[in-house]
Amino acid sequence: MVTMIAAVAENNALGKDNKLLWHLPDDFKRFKKLTTGHHIIMGRKTFESFPKPLPDRTHVVISRQPEYKPEGCIVVDSLEKALAVSPNHEDVFIIGGGEIYNLAMPFADRST
Fold it and tell me: What's the CATH number for 2-111?
């Protein structure tokens, strides 16, 4: 199942300057509980917004830069390839950013 997971403001804003708009501990706990042990698909800028890779998750990063190869990640150049390297039999989470969410809409089974 492909799930899009996001924290969205009332005006549909996702973030500003590559940062979340707020820091709510309960949201972070829920995100961790849902995504731990699964593949998380994100764009390069979203990945770079983390101080380090998130533990106990497989990071699949979509980038147009062929030389981009951060340690501990699977890097692909399209959403289709990101989904292809993710197991079909388990939950996969799309975690952003905005362009990736738009690309993922036709593939998503649910959003949370």
Answer: 3.40.430.10
